[in-house]
Amino acid sequence: MATLSTNPGGVSKLWAGTRPTPGVGLAWIGQSGFAFRFGRRRALIDPYLSDFLAQKYRGADFPHERLMPPPIDAQELRRLEWVLCTHAHSDHMDPITLSLIATVMPDCRFVVPAAERTTAESRGIRSEQILAVDAGETHDLGEGLVLRVIPAAHEDLRRDSRGRHHFLGYVLSHDRVTVYHSGDCVPFDGLQRAVSESTPDLALLPVNGRDEYRRSRGVPGNFTILEAERLACAVDAAFLIPHHFGMFDFNTVDQYDVAALAQRHREAPLRVEVPDVDHHYFLREA
């Protein structure tokens, strides 16, 4: 049994101080990105803190202009030990953010899909900084932090010529609590079983959905709100934090629908917390 508390202040507040914190602390940094604190360790998953996509797609059908500013400048990040990227799309493996972190914090390590190692290196990460992983693996990240890797389907279960998955989900366990970040994902056979093996206390799931219009223009989709709700319930997660909304106007979801999800689940067995970049959260064993 775990508890989830909400506290004022975003990632800067979460990372303040040097004393170890119990359980797992986390803060939303927009899109699918989260900052974490595991004791003294600090980590990011899928940080998109630049305007890379706005620059790349300016004048296109989907211009990728940010609807929310980055809650922190990548240059302000300090004492960062790990950055985990679930796949190579630029709002998850951001070339500007990652190359800056790799340069400013040379001791930081980057977890990336083994199928995308070359992509990560092309975005400014040195080979010795990379921990390349694939589904089915478990890695000790130090100081009691354990990573379990499972597959994800960003509309499809894509593999390279060596059978390695391009899209991954990450299960992180620390201090007797477990967090599951699905990466970009839709339901597929075997997903519930793979997630249930880790009995996550908290599920971090995208809810921007999918449709043929976006798919036909090269924008693969994710869980709908209902699918995320069903998965969180099916794996007996105590808490769900939805994400992947509010960043790009063509690839989001009505925030009233997200609020309605939270209204339906205000207490056990599943509580839904709508993320806010001006708050941080602590997940602890009760």
Task: Tell me briefly what this model is.
With 286 residues, the chain is α/β, with parallel strands linked by helices. The protein contains eight helices and 16 strands. It has one domain (2-285): Metallo-beta-lactamase, Chain A, CATH 3.60.15.
Task: Explain the overall architecture.
The structure is a single chain. With 286 residues, this protein is of the alpha/beta class. It has one domain (2-285): Metallo-beta-lactamase, Chain A, CATH 3.60.15. The chain is built from eight helices and 16 strands. The chain has helices at 11-14, 52-57, 95-104, 117-122, 191-196, 212-216, 225-234, 255-264; strands at 2-8, 21-30, 33-39, 41-45, 82-84, 109-113, 130-133, 138-142, 145-151, 168-174, 177-181, 202-206, 239-243, 266-267, 270-272, 279-285. Strands 1-16-2-3-4-5-6-7 form an eight-stranded mixed beta sheet. A hairpin with a 2-residue loop joins strand 10 (168-174) and strand 11 (177-181). The protein is globular, with a radius of gyration of 17 Å. The model has no long low-confidence stretch (mean pLDDT 96).
Helices and strands in order:
Elements (H helix, E strand, L loop, with lengths): L1 E7 L2 H4 L6 E10 L2 E7 L1 E5 L6 H6 L24 E3 L10 H10 L4 E5 L3 H6 L7 E4 L4 E5 L2 E7 L16 E7 L2 E5 L9 H6 L5 E5 L5 H5 L8 H10 L4 E5 L11 H10 L1 E2 L2 E3 L6 E7 L1
